[in-house]
């Protein structure tokens, strides 16, 4: 049976979920099983998208296939490539905050992160006055034309990120073709090929679940709880992205107040993540905020409140029943070094003292109707952008 390996992998993957060390509550387990469903979809998409001669971009993370603390403000597009071929990428630049490209030389594994061979944003490319662009990726060559980028040894994936600060901004377009295959057609499928793809999906499913359960150990859980790091270049990430990471543990009578300067970077975003290393429900709850979405205090600082209970302020990030989780701030399209002065300060406070601890509390407040309007705007933006 060509599906046997995948069926066995699903059983093994469910065991990984049920045995995960952070599972303490029914909510933890239910979220894990839902994560498993998304991981199955992602593994199948990856296996069927492993076409390096006739590639196309696939969505690497969606609200239904979350992975790797997905950023609610980002659409991820990935295509499989080979280092001895040339590819042409065409598109139109949208009105989003950032558009970036990254070449990777492997897959994520429980022991390692793939090396980034190169990473750059659209400031490094020529774009027409109408927003269109054409890029070439391929082997090293003499006198390369403009917008030509060398893939490098073992290049295996091109990852494109389109990042929103204003969720209503117009998105762009993106497409990829292998140059010497344009106008040709791939060979037909047979049972042997399908068997290989089911086997690849099976391997990817279990490996990625194990990998992203290891990520928090590498980057988060060794930090003191209810703290965040100074800004640092994202490990294995973009050359112009800084991040600040942490993890929280709060009871219903506690809150975090996180204070950070409003940045000069085009993109600054803050999000919560579950212990499965996934974004929380960002469409129906305010579990993330960009600098455009957040309310700024008169002193130029952003003050966020992380809590289970509603504090009645615009920059509340909802824990949605999670006593524990991850904290992440990202700055992208940066043009300078970020230091501790750009980073967050974190304070654990009793919930009933939030108003006294916010120096501009009156500026921060929202009415129930205003809050409902904020959620309605998120829902509309997700429907228009992320599920398109």
SSE layout and pairing:
Layout: H1 4-18, H2 26-48, E1 58-59, E2 74-80, E3 87-92, E4 98-104, E5 116-121, E6 132-138, E7 148-150, E8 157-163, E9 173-178, H3 191-219, E10 227-228, E11 232-233, E12 241-249, E13 254-261, E14 267-273, E15 288-290, E16 301-307, E17 316-318, E18 324-332, E19 345-350, H4 354-357, H5 361-364, H6 368-386
Parallel strand pairs: 6-7, 16-17
Antiparallel strand pairs: 1-2, 2-8, 3-6, 3-9, 4-5, 4-8, 10-12, 11-12, 12-18, 13-16, 13-19, 14-15, 14-18
Helix pairs in contact: 1-2, 1-3, 2-3
Describe this structure in words.
The chain is 24% helix and 28% strand. The chain has 6 helices and 19 strands. The longest helix has 29 residues. It is globular and about 65 Å long. The chain is α+β, with helices and mostly antiparallel strands. Strand 11 and strand 12 form a beta hairpin. Strands 10, 11, 12, 14, 15 and 18 form a 6-stranded antiparallel sheet that branches. The chain has a 5-stranded antiparallel sheet with strand order 1-2-8-4-5, with no helix packed on it. Strands 7-6-3-9 form a 4-stranded mixed sheet, with no helix packed on it.
Summarize the structure.
The protein is an alpha+beta fold and 388 residues long. Helix content is 24%, strand content 28%. The mean pLDDT is 93.
Using brief descriptors, characterize the structure shown.
388 residues, alpha+beta, 5-stranded antiparallel β-sheet, 6 helices, 19 strands
């Amino acid at each position: 049976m060509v599906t046997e390996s995948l069926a066995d992998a699903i059983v093994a993957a469910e065991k990984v979920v049920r045995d995960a060390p952070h599972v303490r509550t029914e909510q933890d387990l239910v979220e894990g099983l839902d994560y498993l469903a998304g991981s199955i979809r992602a593994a199948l998409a990856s296996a069927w998208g492993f076409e390096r001669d006739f590639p196309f971009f696939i969505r690497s993370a969606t609200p239904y296939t979350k992975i790797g603390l997905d950023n609610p403000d980002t659409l991820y597009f990935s295509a499989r490539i080979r280092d001895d071929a040339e590819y042409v990428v065409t598109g139109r630049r949208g009105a989003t905050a950032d558009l970036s490209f990254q070449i990777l030389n492997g897959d994520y594994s429980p022991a390692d992160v793939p090396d980034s061979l190169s990473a750059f944003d659209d400031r490094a490319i020529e774009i027409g006055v109408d927003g269109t662009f054409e890029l070439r990726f391929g082997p090293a060559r003499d006198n390369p034309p403009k917008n030509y980028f060398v893939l490098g040894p073992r290049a295996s994936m091109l990852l494109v990120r389109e990042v929103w600060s204003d969720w209503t901004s117009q998105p762009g377009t993106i497409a990829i073709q292998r140059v010497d295959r344009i106008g040709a057609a791939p060979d037909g499928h047979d049972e042997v090929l399908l068997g290989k793809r089911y086997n690849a999906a099976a391997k990817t499913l279990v490996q990625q679940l194990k990998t992203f359960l290891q990520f928090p150990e590498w980057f988060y859980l060794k930090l003191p709880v209810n703290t965040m790091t100074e800004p640092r270049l994202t490990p294995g990430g973009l050359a112009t992205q800084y991040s600040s990471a942490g993890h929280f543990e709060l009871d219903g009578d506690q809150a975090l107040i996180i204070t950070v300067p409003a940045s000069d970077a085009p993109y600054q975003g803050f999000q919560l993540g579950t212990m499965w290393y996934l974004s929380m429900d960002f469409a129906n709850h305010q579990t993330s905020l960009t600098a455009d979405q957040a309310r700024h205090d008169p002193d130029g600082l952003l003050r966020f409140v992380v809590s289970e209970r509603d504090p009645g302020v615009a920059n509340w990030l909802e824990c949605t029943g999670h006593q524990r989780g991850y904290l992440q701030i990202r700055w992208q399209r940066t043009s300078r070094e970020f230091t501790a002065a750009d980073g967050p300060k974190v304070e654990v406070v009793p919930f009933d003292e939030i108003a006294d601890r916010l120096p501009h509390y009156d500026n921060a407040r929202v009415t129930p109707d205003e809050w409902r309007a904020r959620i309605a705007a998120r829902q509309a933006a997700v429907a228009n952008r992320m599920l398109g």
